[in-house]
Amino acid sequence: MKNSTGNMSELPDISILKCMQCGICSGSCPSGRFMELNIRTLIKKSASGRPVLDEDELWMCTTCYSCQERCPRQIKIVDWLLSVRSKAVHEGNIKPEHKQVIKNLLDTGHAVPINQENIEKRERLGLSSLPSTVVKDDGALKDVKNLLKSCGFDTIINEDQI
Amino acid sequence: MRKIALFFGCLIPNRYPGIEMATNLCLATLDIDFAELESASCCPAPGVFRSFDEMTWLTIAARNLALAEKMDRDILTVCNGCFGSLNEASSRLDNSNRKNKELRLQVNKHLEKIGLEYNGTVKVRHIIEFLSQEFGSDKISELVTHPLKVNVAVHYGCHMVKPTEKIKGDSAENPVFFDLLVEATGANSISYPDKNQCCGAGGGVRAGLHDRSIQMVEHKLKMIRSKEIDCIVDACPFCHMQFDSGQYEINNTQNQNYKIPVLHYTQLLALSLGYGPEDVGIDQNVIKNNELE
């Protein structure tokens, strides 16, 4: 992952400069019980103007919203973290597993596409072999692909790298 | 009650189709006017795609909302992730303020390229909230023909109740509405430590940091196993996959013997309405348990 800079302490709707470092967020964080994520210190680091876009901790959040619900300063912590992630991704900081999820959406319109095993499970239940989604409707899949292109989503990953 | 466009997303039709079948059977038995949202795509998944690019996430969500709007129906989701994404998108693109309308204009610039427009009128419901609000546990219990004598570990999952800024449930810290619906089937909801803790799958963690994600679900499973419990009941296919295939992975890598059956609420409800376990794909889980099959 390449080095990144960028001040993420004040976003259009979120300011982490209100943070008083009380630690309710990190005390409430289930990821913090099992991983290195310390959301309080991540916020402190970003609020003091230091770069956070390279931090692996960004990707340890399950977006459970416990911190955001309990923050006494009502800082939208998860929304902030998602914005920081997005900035990181646009600077090329993205895991190979997440590139694969992007590729799935670009190719099939689904994050998790159908496979033969599940076609057979559907048939055993008496369901149609394919669900009534974009997978069964070429025109709709083309629409989704056009929207993804219109938003520039295909440029986030370099498909040669997958 | 507005008519329903049923939205299954990715994991239900493509990994746990038994939940699709169970949902269809339950809604038909409850005489709800529903039609599947045809030609839908991924919601798109909030933890990953919203992390990657917000406008893409919002635009693809808006396409799904616009398809439901054309049908003049509200969206019913059966997955916490789909609910999280579509509810958040709907609340940002509705007509409640000027900022939302301005954002909708930007989204509609993309949608017009495929001949669609979203006017901000679709509400998004979650099956548990929907059954709780529109029927209530007393009414559901009157419809039950085969009361289930099982002890259940209820798992709400995060995005059914949080963020409370966008979701008005009974409580984010100690919700009860799902437990009441589970008990309406005759089952007992058994309390267990860290009941409201995350399963560990969301936010791209299951894909990106898989081993750590499994550590998180292992903790939940340990807490559940510490009680006399017959099965886990969830409200989301991603939590469902994490509990079900998570047990298989833990058994294979750590010489454990977890075999707790995992049911989505619609599967539990279908059993209590008289359908068989194989009708709703409970035998198609990774973790097998003959007592419930």
TrEMBL record, chain A:
Pathway: Cofactor metabolism; coenzyme M-coenzyme B heterodisulfide reduction; coenzyme B and coenzyme M from coenzyme M-coenzyme B heterodisulfide: step 1/1. GO terms for biological process: methanogenesis. Its EC number is 1.8.98.1. One of its GO terms (cellular component) is plasma membrane. Coiled coil: none annotated. The keyword Thylakoid does not apply. Pfam families: Fer4_8. Keywords: 4Fe-4S, Iron, Iron-sulfur, Metal-binding, Methanogenesis, Oxidoreductase. Residues 10-40, 49-81 form the 4Fe-4S ferredoxin-type domain. InterPro entries: 4Fe4S_Fe-S-bd (IPR017896), 4Fe4S_Fe_S_CS (IPR017900), CoB/CoM_hetero-S_Rdtase_csu (IPR017680), HdrC_iron-sulfur_subunit (IPR051460), Helical_ferredxn (IPR009051). PROSITE patterns: 4FE4S_FER_1, 4FE4S_FER_2. One of its GO terms (molecular function) is 4 iron, 4 sulfur cluster binding. It is an enzyme of class 1 (oxidoreductase). Belongs to the HdrC family. This is CoB--CoM heterodisulfide reductase subunit C. It comes from Methanosalsum natronophilum.
Automatic annotation (TrEMBL), chain B:
Residues 86-113 form a coiled coil. InterPro entries: CoB/CoM_hetero-S_Rdtase_bsu (IPR017678), Cys_rich_dom (IPR004017), HdrB/HdrD_reductase (IPR051278). It is an enzyme of class 1 (oxidoreductase). GO terms for molecular function: 4 iron, 4 sulfur cluster binding; CoB--CoM heterodisulfide reductase activity; metal ion binding. Keywords: 4Fe-4S, Coiled coil, Iron, Iron-sulfur, Metal-binding, Methanogenesis, Oxidoreductase. It comes from the Archaea. Its EC number is 1.8.98.1. Its cofactor is [4Fe-4S] cluster. One of its GO terms (biological process) is methanogenesis. Pathway: Cofactor metabolism; coenzyme M-coenzyme B heterodisulfide reduction; coenzyme B and coenzyme M from coenzyme M-coenzyme B heterodisulfide: step 1/1. Gene3D superfamilies: 1.20.1050.140. It holds the Pfam family CCG. Residues 4-86, 152-244 form the Cysteine-rich domain. Belongs to the HdrB family. This is CoB--CoM heterodisulfide reductase subunit B. It comes from Methanosalsum natronophilum. The gene is hdrB.
